[in-house]
Automatic annotation (TrEMBL):
Catalytic activity entry: a 2,3-saturated acyl-[ACP] + NAD(+) = a (2E)-enoyl-[ACP] + NADH + H(+)
Protein name (record): Enoyl-[acyl-carrier-protein] reductase [NADH]
SUPFAM superfamilies: NAD(P)-binding Rossmann-fold domains (SSF51735)
InterPro entries for the chain: Enoyl-ACP_Rdtase_NADH (IPR014358), NAD(P)-bd_dom_sf (IPR036291), SDR_fam (IPR002347)
Family matches, as Pfam families: adh_short_C2
Biochemical pathway: Lipid metabolism; fatty acid biosynthesis
Enzyme class: oxidoreductase
Length: 255
């Protein structure tokens, strides 16, 4: 049984009830952790506050992870509120629409920069801010996708961003290991989230995943949440720098 009683977890990337971040937050809360939910902007504030009310002892904080000053202000507020942190969840990704729908060859420099900044660099930025608040060690989990390894139609620059993110997981695991902070990623299967709507022909991806995966069903946010809760718990104390697939076995198939 996963026991996170007395632990404090900050979760970045909650947009609505379909968010993977929400599935993780629910599972962490079920295990006993108190949750700090971070949402991007005023447009997402109402959903974040509404969902946080469903959790025990949860609070919300606004933070755009592409703005260093907002990260600094958020972690100052987290320190004032909680003192220390034990868990950080990074469930953040974004690429401009043109970079997702156009041929990959046509990716523009600015679109590439934005995708890598928001989807990959932001993990480094929030990990750096969180580390001083984890004096007794801690655990960090981010979300990735098999498109980091293989080409998926219309995934385009996001696949490159996820590849950078996975590399960052390994480098951060080495950088933070001496402080007792573990860093891992969950590679989630296709899920119809708000972010995933930006992928052209998403339904084809969902259908292919269901047909080809070993379990013949698409995973949901709570299944991803279970895996993340494990990685973030003491049960995974010997695991860092790893990518855990939660995709029903889709990644093991060839045809």
């Amino acid at each position: 049984m996963i026991d996170l009683q007395g632990k404090t977890a900050v979760v970045f990337g909650l947009a609505n009830k379909r968010s993977i971040a929400w599935g993780i937050a629910q599972k962490l809360n079920e295990a006993g952790a108190r949750i700090a939910i971070c949402y991007q902007n005023d447009r997402l504030k109402r959903d974040a506050e509404s969902l946080s009310a469903e959790l025990r002892d949860a609070k919300t904080f606004q933070c755009d992870v592409s703005v260093d000053s907002e990260i600094d202000a958020t972690f100052a507020a987290l320190k004032e509120t909680y003192g220390t942190l034990d868990i950080l969840v990074h469930s953040v990704a974004f690429a401009p629409a043109d970079a997702m729908k156009n041929d990959f060859l046509e990716t523009r420099r600015d679109d590439f920069r934005i995708a890598l900044d928001v989807s990959a660099y932001s993990l480094i930025a929030v990990a750096r801010a969180a580390a001083p608040l984890m004096p007794a060690g801690g655990s960090i989990v981010t979300l990735t996708h098999y498109g980091a390894d293989k080409v998926f139609p219309n995934y385009n620059v996001m696949g490159v961003a996820k590849a950078a993110l996975e590399s960052a997981v390994r480098y951060l695991a080495m950088s933070l290991g001496s402080r007792g902070i573990r860093v891992n990623a969950v590679s989630a299967g296709a899920i119809k989230t708000l972010a995933a709507r930006g992928i052209g022909d998403l339904q084809k991806m969902l259908d292919a995943s269901e047909a080809r995966s070993a379990l013949h069903h698409n995973v949901d946010t709570l299944e991803v949440g279970n895996a993340a809760a494990f990685l973030l718990s003491p049960l995974a104390s010997g695991i860092t720098g790893e990518i855990m697939f939660v995709d029903g076995g889709f990644n093991i198939t060839g045809m």
